[in-house]
Design goal:
This protein is α+β, with helices and mostly antiparallel strands. The chain has two domains: about 200 residues, Jelly Rolls (Sandwich), CATH 2.60.120; about 110 residues, no CATH class. The protein is about 15% helix and about 35% strand. The protein is built from seven helices and 17 strands. The strands form two sheets. It has a 15-stranded mixed β-sheet that branches. A two-stranded antiparallel ribbon has the order 7-8. The protein is globular. The two termini are about 40 Å apart.
Length: about 350
Amino acid sequence: MKYSKWSFLIVSALFVPNAQAKEAAVVPPAEPSFSASSELASPKSLGAYSPAKLFDGDPTTAWCEGAEGLGIGERIIITWPETVEIDGFAFMPGFHKSEELFLKNSVPRKIHFAIDGKDFPTFLVGYRLALAGDDEDPKAVRGMGCYPTPADLLIPWRVVVFPETRKANRLALVIDSGKRGSAWADLLISEIVLFTVGKEPTGLPQEVLRAAKILIELRDGSGPTNLYAPHTQIHSTDDNRAYAQFLSMIHVKQPDTQIQEPVIETRQELNKAGSQATAWWAAQHPYLFDTALAIDGARIVGPVSTRHGDGEWVELYPEILLNDEDQIYQLGEAAYWDGVPGCAGGVIPSTAGTEGWRYGEE
């Protein structure tokens, strides 16, 4: 992908004749101001955890809420002096100054956003989880249940792409629930980057920026055919896929619940209305926009799309794989398996290639 509407709106003015340049040039949107409903009062320096830390491009600094407990209901407020168009935002949940501080402090579990006072649905901020006690490191053992592991640091960014470009004067991010750290209830967010039309985002890793641009291009209808690799692998989106995956993972897959083999489609086939890619996008679209997506290099992992099981369960997550040329070469779902009750919800599979817990395996 060569252009996004963020960059194209800026460069398009370069090709206008001089007599019309002033009239046709796109004026970048005004800079916003930032505030929060509370912030942690630092004994060392005033403003050490202010909302300004969210927008300084430094993941080792962070905003920390200053309310009692996990800061449920606390909010970050972004205000523009004039109306802007915004496609979404990326954020880095937790305190990323060090792995130790990440684990000791709390992280948001559910968040919703509001535009000009209108609330939008809550979404889950997925994390990779581990079972307490399965790590030999004593600092990781915190009793029964599940907790975020250091592997979260491998996939720190979450991206929210709105279903459509929205006009806004004010954007608020609201904490709906959190997961307590091993030492403190203080809840932190390290960075926020806004996708404002007419302004190229800064401060994002290249892989996160390219993934966000691809998602917006897909949403706006300029893809996906322009973004596909010459040959793309597409996995089934049948209704029984979670059940079949569940049986497969516990090694009792039945003949009538076979997981359908993926198909390979060429670019020409991808253009057809009846292609597997078209069916995949129709099924997964609700899970890819207006919700949190985990980004890791060549993978875009969406929130859980389907689940099967009670106690022991399998969850499937939409997964888009990109090659070095920012082309989609696989559409499918990553699987996460849990053999112990109590860990469902808020889990994302390892983006390093591990599929989570398997029956009878570590």
